Automatic annotation (TrEMBL):
Family annotation (PROSITE patterns): ISPD, ISPF
Any one of the GO BP annotations: isopentenyl diphosphate biosynthetic process, methylerythritol 4-phosphate pathway
Function noted in UniProt: Bifunctional enzyme that catalyzes the formation of 4-diphosphocytidyl-2-C-methyl-D-erythritol from CTP and 2-C-methyl-D-erythritol 4-phosphate (MEP) (IspD), and catalyzes the conversion of 4-diphosphocytidyl-2-C-methyl-D-erythritol 2-phosphate (CDP-ME2P) to 2-C-methyl-D-erythritol 2,4-cyclodiphosphate (ME-CPP) with a corresponding release of cytidine 5-monophosphate (CMP) (IspF).
Source species: Parasphingorhabdus halotolerans
Key word Lyase present: yes
The protein's name in its UniProt record: Bifunctional enzyme IspD/IspF
Catalytic reactions on record: 2-C-methyl-D-erythritol 4-phosphate + CTP + H(+) = 4-CDP-2-C-methyl-D-erythritol + diphosphate; 4-CDP-2-C-methyl-D-erythritol 2-phosphate = 2-C-methyl-D-erythritol 2,4-cyclic diphosphate + CMP
Record lineage: Bacteria, Pseudomonadati, Pseudomonadota, Alphaproteobacteria, Sphingomonadales
Annotated a divalent metal cation binding sites: 238, 240, 272
Cofactor(s) essential for the protein: a divalent metal cation
Pathway: Isoprenoid biosynthesis; isopentenyl diphosphate biosynthesis via DXP pathway; isopentenyl diphosphate from 1-deoxy-D-xylulose 5-phosphate: step 4/6; Isoprenoid biosynthesis; isopentenyl diphosphate biosynthesis via DXP pathway; isopentenyl diphosphate from 1-deoxy-D-xylulose 5-phosphate: step 2/6
Length: 389
């Protein structure tokens, strides 16, 4: 939000959240239900509050909804509460009065709280149109064959090329909208503000709507919340000491070498780094949290099971592994002759394709512990996709 909130030149936004949500079949008004981790009303409130083109935000709630609203909007910065009316139209009317009493506005964007996924693009487009037009709203094409009906039988098949589905926010010159509401007959219920504005003789410019801006109305809308893919990355790093008399396991493959790695389990430094990367991508701690080195149970254990365990945790959260990339840091043994076998084995353990697994190796130019062949280090990075509601 910008800081010119008291000026009559300001752009105000209104989030209408005073409905009862009777068609949703929920026990409380739908705008206070959580979707994608936030109450429905909170989504568009956050969209407006984070937009620099909006100077003042009004949230309209029903009488008696104060506690629900305070809870849903806790921590939000500046917004003003208005008590709505029995209909959407009346709720808008109450808000227009409140704005007029507080000094007026230049422009106003009126939005249904029941349309939570309001993008910055839509707000940008509406504000851009308002520079030259008095009214604007987002619309979508009608994709099905459209008919009229008496409720039972086919009336007429309509020309869908001329039909659009109307969304919010609807954006207006404030004074013109106020005057339009003043002359609209009180006994006629308008389902949106554009028709009231048009009836007063003004044009409405149409912008392209957004399918994600769909309104939550019926119970099925709550089951159809669009999934959001979250891309996560995790990183892992591990070092084990090279000692004579130990087996050398790297990436789940036993490798012939004069020394082997000592430590936790089979000390497969590469799979340990990979396990940490996978756990890191879902914020699930590190390998030591899940397989404590102090627990004798893991003595000599095959490290593949740690990788499989982390993979199952990811799957349990609805995640899929996009790719993993690892680097072994050692002077010897030379990794190249084993690299493809290690890659293939890790791809099998993770149940992903070979080209989703990369294994690389480098030396430290004989510097440090790796250069002196006292130990091997490994680093790994994993990228995963999480489908979130
Ligand atoms: N008296 C009302 C009625 C509706 N709205 C708001 O207008 C938007 C669109 O209305 P709708 O989807 O019909 O919501 P409800 O009226 O709550 O739903 P229902 O008709 O199923 O009761 C919603 O964000 C709703 O909270 C409002 O502010 N005041
Ligand atoms: C304003 C609106 O969302 C535009 O499509 C719609 O008219 C609201 O209708 P409702 O009956 O109040 O859900």
């Amino acid at each position: 939000m910008s800081d010119s909130s008291n000026s009559a030149n300001a752009t105000h936004a209104v989030v209408l959240a005073a409905g009862s949500g009777s068609r949703s079949g929920l026990s409380r008004p739908k705008q206070f239900e959580r979707v994608r981790g936030k109450p429905i009303v909170r989504h568009s409130v956050d969209s407006f509050l984070s937009h620099a083109g909006i100077d003042k935000l009004w949230v309209v709630i029903g009488a008696g909804q104060e506690e629900l609203a305070n809870e849903a909007l806790s921590g939000c910065s500046a917004y003003y509460l208005v008590i709505g009316g029995d209909t959407r139209q009346q709720s808008v009317r109450n808000t227009l009065n409140a704005i007029a009493q507080s000094g007026g506005a230049q422009s106003i964007l009126i939005h249904d709280a029941a349309r939570p996924f309001l993008s910055r693009n839509i707000i940008d487009s509406l504000l851009a149109v308002l520079k030259t037009e008095a009214g604007a709203m987002p619309v979508l094409p009608a994709v099905d064959t459209m008919i009229s009906t008496d409720g039972q039988r086919l009336g007429q098949t309509l020309d869908r090329e001329k039909l659009r589905r109307v969304q919010t926010p609807q954006a207006f010159d404030f004074e013109k909208l106020l005057a339009a509401h003043d002359i609209w007959p009180e006994d006629i219920t308008a389902t949106d503000d554009a028709q009231i504005f048009q009836a007063a003789g003004h044009d409405i410019h149409l912008i392209e709507g957004d399918e994600n801006l769909a309104k939550y109305t019926f119970p099925s809308d709550f089951e159809r919340t669009p999934m959001q893919t979250q891309i996560r990355t995790g990183m892992g790093f591990d070092v084990h000491q090279l000692v004579a008399g130990e087996e050398l396991w790297l990436g789940g493959m036993k490798i012939d070498h004069v020394k082997g790695l000592s430590g936790h389990s089979d000390a497969d430094v590469l799979l340990h780094a990979l396990t940490d990367a996978l756990l890191g991508a879902i914020g699930a701690g590190d390998i030591g949290d899940h397989f404590p080195p102090t627990d004798a149970k893991w003595q000599g254990a095959a490290s593949e099971q740690f990788v499989k365990y982390a993979t199952e945790l990811i799957a349990g959260k609805g995640g899929t592994i996009n790719n993993v990339d690892m680097t072994l840091i050692c002077e010897a043994p030379k990794i190249k002759p084993h690299r493809e076998a290690i890659r293939a084995n890790i791809a099998t353990v993770l149940d992903i394709a070979l080209d989703q697994v990369s294994v690389k190796a480098t030396t430290t130019e004989r510097l440090g512990f790796a250069g002196r062949e006292e130990g091997i280090a490994a680093q790994a990075i994993a990228t995963i996709s999480l489908e979130k509601i």
